[in-house]
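G., before I forget:
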Amino acid sequence: MVPIIAWRNIWRSRTRSLVVIGSIVIGIWALIFLLGFMQGQVDNYVSGIIESETSHLQMHNAQFEDDFDVKLTIDNASKIVEDLESDPGVHAVTSRILLNGMISSSAAANGIMVKGIDLEREDSVTHILAKIMEGAAPDTSKRNQILVSERIAEKLKVKLRSKVVLTFQNTDADITTAAFRVSGIYKTHSKLHDELYVFANKKDLVRLAGVPPGSAHEIAILLREIDHSDAFAENLNETYPWKAETYKQISPDLELFSSQIKLNLIIMTTIFMLALIFGIINTMLMAVLERVRELGMLMAVGMNRVRVFFMIVLETLYIALVGAPIGIILGYFTTKYLNRVGINLSAWSSALEEFGMKDIVRPSLESGTILTVAIAVLITAVLASIYPAIKAIRLRPVQALRKL
Amino acid sequence: MTEEIVIKVSDVHKTYDETKVPVKALRGVTLDIKKGEFTAIVGPSGSGKTTLLNIIGGLDRPTTGSVVVNGMDISTLSDNQLIDFRKTNIGFVFQSYNLIPVLTARENVEFVMLLQKVDKAKRDARTKEMLQAVGLGDRMHNKPTELSGGQQQRVAVARALAPKPSFILADEPTANLDSSSTANLLDIMAQLNQEEGMTFVFSTHDQRVIDRARRVVTIEDGKVLKDEWR
């Protein structure tokens, strides 16, 4: 009977209950959307870094990352690439020559990293061809062609087919200088990336730097499932004498960004739950104070305090149980829809480029988010009901019955 | 009428000091109420009759003195024990009906039996019987707002009687009723008093109730002034 009374009680003041339920619905909907949006930003950031820089995994000579010494290569890189290509877990793999150096034109000079790439394989890992705005990728049939970013082209004041000079150290520790012709100009979503990297044919750099044929400084691997990264890296480290690292190890800022976003989510969720608590307390307190005489009568005829307490808690829970699923369903489908169509943030694209983020954010929900929100709302409802319930059980029937 | 004493009130004093000026509501009331009585406690406003009823009903505690119901001194019980005591021993009829507005007449009558964990078959049968006894067999599924004042008070009487308590305490039960509803309610209560042997104690200053009572206890200034049997 107590659950029935509690359920009917919440509909006694229909408008008031609907206002509270409505605020729960809107609050949860907004919270889930925000959670999805922020997770979408994390995904955006992570996928941007993976796509343009780290891939899912990279292999290097273990000492290479310390000082980028051109001699510290993976000797059998071509063989490893071929082996990995036949692995069903691997989506794409490529090897690269990496040279720290300087690019200069008649107008200016800039410190850069030259990536010597295997063009076909590189494109399947980083989709670099799709980012070419003008011209084309270095022609494999011609020597010394280079792909520069729009930013570097602007700095050096060069255009397509302009000549630039690359200066770097070869394996004999001699400074090598070579003239390259700009075959294409690219632009990615990341300002940092575009200011740092230029792309040339791997075989040109092998020749100019004196790196042994078949070797490389870096092998970049894109897996079919990002979640397999850790296990795959472990496997590579057991199989080869080279150092394999996941994107999280290569770019620790990803973890920092994710954890900061998660902290933001916790703060937002807490603020929302606090607002919800006070909203519910206000409503339930009104409900209790309006029914002082009735509560006095219930206790007079023998309803014990535990039951009265339970009844008030149940009323609060019912309000939450009506509002929460509607809010969750709305939030879920809104997020799902926006994940499909994406949210266009191109108005802020220059700011997003600073962080290496794309201007389309696709909100997404991590597994467990919905359950976490549902549990948080229920806990909030129970907490919010405690004060009004205590207020109810503290009533003395003899005094409560006198209330008009 | 048997001589079994249901309620024994011995030298009960009650002093309220809520307003910091002590108010002596009862000044040594002694009273025995036997099984099957149909007793009215009468007196002017402020005489202490409602206080006496509250103390007998375990809703309030005496400052001094004792109230023994069915051999149990209820002035020594804790608040939780008093709730249990009221649930099993007393049927209340309040001046303003005090039905649960979200429940139907049937559910209201059933309510205390549910708290007592009476099984469903017995509960249903007793609920039906009581609602028919108060002439509301056809209004079982109506909520209080769909009933007149007189009908609501009859539901309240059915609710008080349904769990077969030791006695019924009715605080000004006719105060909000018109003449015909009052007469009808008194008929029903008198009939149930006869048929079920139920003890009724009223506080009232309604002459129509006083006229029907078989014992009238007059209280004034917190003391029993007269105790008349008819």
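The mean pLDDT of chain B is 89. Residues 146 and 152 of chain B are 9 Å apart (CA to CA).

More on Monday.
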